[in-house]
Amino acid sequence: MVNHKNHRKIERQFACACEDRFIWPRIKVSTIPTVDPPPVIVPNDNIIPTVNRYFYVVPSNIDLTNGATLPANLFFHDNGNTVTEFTIFNPNGYVNLYINAVMQEGGIYSLTTTSLTLNPYNSTIYRGTPIIIESLGFSTK
């Protein structure tokens, strides 16, 4: 049960101690202005994106204390088939790594056509964790 007298006493003490803090004024909207919609942008038909995704679900814990290297043949392509190598679009593309659906910082891994290398880190990737590599490239007609 909340003691309302003590609660108000604490509020007054806190308010007195923080008199120098900035309090944003309340904003009251009386009318909503109309805004023109953004212009329609027609995509450039000359640039063609290509996306390749590779999936792997960790069957047993991976200790990253000394880093780890996962060969490409552990991964499956979007079509469900095992791959023998990753497609890397260089220089007109980039790669993202997702571990447990969270995009990872570029500095913690490196990717070659044959393997994913995770740098040493005091951590573990646990059994059942999905690892997804997304390789996106751009070409022209």
Percentage of β-strand residues:
25-35%
Approximate helicity band: under 10%
What structural category do the secondary elements indicate?
Answer: mainly beta
Largest sheet composition: 5 strands, antiparallel
Q: Could you say which overall geometry the principal axes of the C-alpha atoms support?
A: flat
Helices and strands, in order, run as: HEEEEEEEEEE
* Strand order in space, largest sheet: 4-1-10-5-6
Uncertain segments are none
Q: Report the radius of gyration as a whole number of Å.
A: 26 Å
Could you write a compact summary of the structure shown?
The protein is mainly beta. It contains one helix and ten strands.
Characterise this structure.
With 141 residues, this protein is mainly β. 10% of the residues lie in helices and 34% in strands. The protein contains one helix and ten strands, in the order αββββββββββ. The protein has one helix at 4-17, and strands spanning 47-57, 62-63, 68-71, 76-77, 93-99, 102-103, 109-111, 115-118, 124-125, 130-140. The protein has a five-stranded antiparallel sheet with strand order 4-1-10-5-6, with no helix packed on it. A hairpin with a 3-residue loop joins β7 (109-111) and β8 (115-118). It starts with a helix and ends with a strand. The model has no long low-confidence stretch (mean pLDDT 83).
List key phrases describing it.
141 residues, 10% helix, mainly beta, three-stranded antiparallel β-sheet, 10 strands, five-stranded antiparallel β-sheet
